[in-house]
Amino acid sequence: MDLLDEPVPGVGTYEDFNTIDWVREKSKDRDRHREIATKSKESTLALMKSISDAFSGWLLMLLVGLMAGALAGGIDISARWMTDLKEGVCLNGLWFNHEHCCWNSNKTTFQERDKCPNWKSWAELIVGTNDGPFAYIMNYLMYVCWALLFSFLAVSLVRAFAPYACGSGIPEIKTILSGFIIRGYLGKWTLMIKTITLVLAVSSGLSLGKEGPLVHVACCCGNILCHLFTKYRRNEAKRRETLWRSFFAALVAAFTLRSINPFGNSRLVLFYVEFHSPWHLLELIPFILLGIFGGIWGAFFIRANIAWCRRRKTTRLGHYPVLEVLVVTAVTALLAFPNSYTRMSTSELISELFNDCGLLDSSQLCNYANVSVTKISSDALPDRPAGPDVYTAMWQLSLALVFKMLITVVTFGMKVPSGLFIPSMAVGAIAGRLLGVGMEQLAYYHHDWVIFRGWCSPGADCITPGLYAMVGAAACLGGVTRMTVSLVVIMFELTGGLEYIVPLMAATMTSKWVADALGREGIYEAHIRLNGYPFLESKEEFSHKTLAMDVMRPRRSDPPLSVITQDGMSVEEVESLIAETSYSGFPVVVSHESQRLVGFVQRRDLVISIENARKRQEGVVSASRIFFTEYTPPQPPNSPPPLKLRGIMDLSPFTVTDHTAMDIVVDIFRKLGLRQCLVTHNGRLLGIITKKDILKHMAQMANRDPDSILFN
């Protein structure tokens, strides 16, 4: 009896913390597709099933887009409401945030549009006034208390229900997409808890963003919805490909988000810029300076954050995640409240820094001295001398810059959902606005200098400080993540500023070059290495002249390679081999003497098949022989029935010779997504190379601890 004439539940699946076999999964999908195509010619029902199978990918993307867009909109609206809750409440309805509360008020002036009788601060509700030191202390106290409550709820929910919901999620998502299995990381509980705690963490005022965790949330949506469709549920590789269809999913998500309108401005972008002033070629110098700053800041942040996270892992600090979150939240809230630029949400801060000052702006940053203007352009005001409030704002922004740079180092990586896009952009936007205002004042008072002569005449709008903030934000984000083309596209999406492609590209490339000169890894790659995930970085070069025989196992001092013969082993012998080893699979050879390779069998498939045979096939005992051959030879009389397991064996495992250069082997693993590769010499099996063997060898060649390459 061949047990694999019909599928055995569990065969072809993978255990937790294992790498998938991309080649096998692709082959399974091709066989499935070929079978469907053949049957579709036999009947109308089969043809309808074939059409349904082809359409299921697009339906899945539609559902993912709807779900991800709806969750993103809900998270945005909830986070804005809870952030404002730290400062007061709306008497018209508790569910209104500050801005929405004042929209319907007839007593709101444009200059003081944030002040309306419907919105009451906590001091007004508790002590009856918003003026005086006691009212200030009351507002301060309530701000800190709400921040501590939100962060406590966030870290407690993560610890109790979904430990995988903490952090950004992007390092793990990159590892999962490369073929690694982390059960539960994209599950229902993780999605639910991450969605709730992301709102709480952002609302607490911690120096973190929601963009990275939203990637994790969207991936959870995709993984959960994949289980509704057979071809994705049963194929790990199929579940990880969706590049072209992801464009359609993004389109649906954007439409859903536009329908929800979470930003209240009928636009899809988070920081829409309304200035379109041209920039001059000489301004590339300060833009490149911002790129240098972004690269230095990025390299500093990665080193400092990784050092802090390593300390968290190796000392008692990691044993008290709740206490750590509460202490960081308390320090953040206590230092943030006195400064209006750190008290406001980081998204609101970036939006204000990107803004170009108009006649009706009441921000401190727009408090310029009044000068007589003969002609006002509809697009921009001429450069003007800074007023006292602008200088006050510069000091406050300088303090905010130092505060954000330091507090983000200890915040990213705590046991709450935490993104890095918004904090990194905030650091760059502050630095850019400071430089932009400095350049603006320099151009106003010294327009006859050589660098301004010819393009910056008196009364002209020469410098746009908001543009400098935008370029600085891109530079710092690029320095931390090492993104280039995708980062420029992201900045377009966030701001809508298409005409500033050259300044953004100049700053982004400069920041990457500077950061790469100081350290090769981006923040997500550094966290992948810190956690020991088996991820082969495509950009990491392998320049060492080693051969496959130098990396393969077994080594010269090791016991011989554990193998299974194609027709000579009993069930008891195979079960003993499985019990005595922890390998994920075994090569199948003709005999121990010849070591001629026949195929490769996965440990999990072998265990499940033997257990299934004991239950379903009568007479199978420990003495039964296991055959991986195409035909079973005649058995002696009275012998127990044999087991035919050829169906679970990979008949074409990938092999290399012992003299293959390791740089070629590394390329093969990267491009084919291999799980393991067998090493032969003149057709005889010598050893095996796994993905972890390659990562350990690369770590050893880079003078790092090779034992750090394991899932931690």
Give a brief rundown of this model.
53% of the residues lie in helices and 6% in strands.
Stretches with pLDDT under 50, minimum 5 residues: 373-378
Q: What is the number of helices?
A: 25
- Shape category: elongated
Our measurement of the CA-to-CA distance between the termini, rounded to an integer number of angstroms, reads 43 Å
Mean pLDDT equals 87
Query: Which range does the strand content fall in?
Result: 5-15%
Structural description of this entry:
InterPro entries: CBS_dom (IPR000644), CBS_dom_sf (IPR046342), Cl-channel_core (IPR014743), ClC (IPR001807). It is found in: Endosome membrane; Membrane. The protein has 712 residues and is of the alpha/beta class. It has helices at 22-39, 44-85, 98-103, 122-126, 133-161, 170-177, 188-203, 211-226, 230-233, 243-260, 284-314, 321-336, 340-343, 346-354, 388-411, 421-445, 465-481, 485-495, 501-518, 523-531, 548-551, 571-580, 603-616, 662-672, 691-701, and strands spanning 88-90, 119-121, 564-565, 569-570, 585-589, 597-602, 625-627, 643-644, 649-650, 655-657, 676-681, 684-690. It has a four-stranded mixed beta sheet with strand order 3-5-6-9. Strands 4-7-8 form a three-stranded mixed beta sheet. The chain has a three-stranded mixed beta sheet with strand order 10-11-12. Helix 14 runs parallel beside helix 16 (421-445). The radius of gyration is 31 Å and the shape is elongated.
